[in-house]
Predict the 3D structure of the following.
Amino acid sequence: MPIQHTSDGPNTFAWNPDKMNKELVAKGLLSLSLATLLGGCASTAPSNPSDPWEKPNRAFYNFNDSLDRNFFTPVAKGYVWATPKPVRAGVTNAFENVNYLNVMANDLLQGKVSDFASDSGRFVVNSTVGLGGLFDPATKLGMPAHDEDLGQTLGKWGVGEGRYMVLPLMGPNSLRDLPNVASAMALNPLTYLNAVVTVPLGVINTINMRANLLEETNIRDQAALDPYTFVREAYRQQREFKIYDGNPPSESIDDYLDEPEATAAPAAAADESSVLKVY
Amino acid sequence: MLKLAPRLLLLLSLGLPCGALAAEATAVVETLHAALLAAMKDAKTLGFKGRVAQLGPVLDSTFDFPAIAKVATGRHWQKMTEDQRQTFLQTFRDLSVATYADNFSDFGGEKFETLGHEQKKNAELVRTNIVTGEGKRVSLNYVLTRNNDDYRIVNVVAEGVSDLGLKRSEYDGIIASEGVDSLVAKLKAKVASYAASGK
């Protein structure tokens, strides 16, 4: 779907894994997180049927949040203060460009032929005329940025979310969206460079992305009574929005307004995952 | 400069011939937008309290807070006493107004564009965009239902994220684990914090 250069919204730790080169960290943390998730499954009774892994998810969420508040947010704020906006825009553009092969591949997988053509052109133009992606002449030439990933492709093919997961450092994710971590890394040319180059680049990318999301996290902090739930629901809704390219299947609000009490409890609980995508 | 992010999540919870109804529904949304623009432009002179006073009546007439409150509490509404319902409704409404007053606190050349409407079962969907001073577009869709004689907003969906959906999930969890009174206390605390930090 065409993106209008908004960030990932309330997807607070939206360190788009596909943009971040963090092989060692990812491997270590994924194995840690899987161990915790499976352990968590065994011992807890879910309070929310649509989020059976809520307990370990909350634990990771709190871990991420405290790391974020104590380290990443202050660093990102310093970065914003020290770096002029055009420079930050250039950094954002460059990392988005380097990730673009993943977008193109998923355009094809979803059968979006004209988007694939436009995105191929965009990649070429921005990489060459745009000096390695620092600039974005392609948008003005009629090739806007699209946002596609393997999770959206799977969703388009009918795969459901699976399970909602919060991963350490990486934040909100799901069983369906997780494969994109690996595929995006594989399709990102930076992955294949020496660690001497990739680690500093990864750090810059992370901080730049965190800086881009500072306003969204302000909103979350102001508005959310229960930030974990807030982020989960916002993540889910936004994934649906992206999968259906801005036109998710709608539900009538009357279904909720007239909910009979007798069936409301199980229905409401079961529907939490698709709650009020009211259009 | 009005922040882009607040529009990403407009934090307010925010059957007849299609033509006539749609026009009515669209007019309601446009009334809201006009009021928001006015508040933004006079934001500094009004201050937080002034914006609350100015936006309050508009929101009361364009939103259907009782319906929203009922949906936001979901299965718990039936179990609430009349007192609890009234308190919740009032607090919820105050929080909604405070949120708008806080978010629309500056003007940087923003505009609203109305894109069109659709009828969905018994609700009208009005599609709009908010365009920032820098030309970025954020999609804002409003769901309106008929309340007696007029159309009122029952949900605002910003970039696919349904405000009512978010609130319903959050409130359900809090009521289930801590009870309605605790939720109301939290909402009141939020209103107070907006008032304290509002400019």
